[in-house]
Design brief:
This protein is mostly helical. The chain is 28% helix and 0% strand.
């Protein structure tokens, strides 16, 4: 029995492809599977503490209070005149297009 030359050449050419196959991955139930060791990185590993303030906190608060006293208010409550409001309509007058409603919502 004689093997054709081209069949032997094809078998030799396919040999590196068969050797290059990656190993089969271990299944999740395989107790002998090789796994990487667990690692732990602390959430505080890159923490840098805050530098101490240049002034004591009570001096900063006093300065902020003095600034607000000079401005005349704080938290959006500055001493400003109230905005002009439109005059209220009497309760008996219905808005246009609502004259069919009884007065007072009854």
């Amino acid at each position: 029995m004689q093997i054709p030359y081209w069949l032997a050449a094809a078998a030799l050419a396919a040999l590196p492809l068969a050797a290059a196959q990656p190993p089969q991955a271990a299944g999740p139930a395989d107790i002998h599977a090789q796994v990487a060791p667990p690692s732990y990185t602390s959430a505080f590993s890159g923490y840098r503490s805050l530098a101490a303030p240049q002034e004591a906190p009570d001096r900063l608060w006093r300065q902020a209070n003095r600034e607000m006293q000079e401005l005349g208010g704080h938290a959006g409550h500055m001493n400003q005149p109230a905005p002009e409001l439109a005059p209220a309509t009497p309760a008996g007058d219905a808005p246009p297009g609502h004259a069919h409603h009884p007065a007072g919502g009854q």
